[in-house]
Amino acid sequence: xxxxxxxxxxxxxxxxxxxxxxxxxxxxxxxxxxxxxxxxxxxxxxxxxxxxxxxxxxxxxxxxxxxxxxxxxxxxxxxxxxxxxxxxxxxxxxxxxxxxxxxxxxxxxxxxxxxxxxxxxxxxxxxxxxxxxxxxxxxxxxxxxxxxxxxxxxxxxxxxxxxxxxxxxxxxxxxxxxxxxxxxxxxxxxxxxxxxxxxxxxxxx
Length: 205
Fold this sequence. Notes:
205 residues; 9 helices; globular; disordered C terminus
């Protein structure tokens, strides 16, 4: 349940940043569609590469929670740094958003496979399909709520306020994650299952 709440906060913020940058960076409406597609491509491409690195660490050390905390906190920090950089030093916001999408992709995209795997571990022996469905459902609910909140806020305030709100949402997702107690049920089950045939073979010999 705690993981579902944490993931809802994270994914809801992630979705509005990637698909609706105009609500955050006050991009001209005429360039909104193009920038949205560019950012999805940039974040996804770089995020896929960083996912190999993060998931490799997870497979080796079983540190799901730590990797997710890095992804969640890192997303909040990167959003704040890049938004301040765009606001204070850069006038060409198109380039700034592209740079942010690259940094964001490195930290945010790997959270998806890691969260799905952690969800499966925590809910085992419940089927992987059901676990993935619950995470997907919570993420869509979170996306809907945060989308409505940001839409309401962007109509009444400025980009800086919206950026702070999203940064708080990312940070909250990380703080909520502290309440998750990692239990690698599937991992130990599979490990024990592999041990039994070996033990039986040794006894037979």
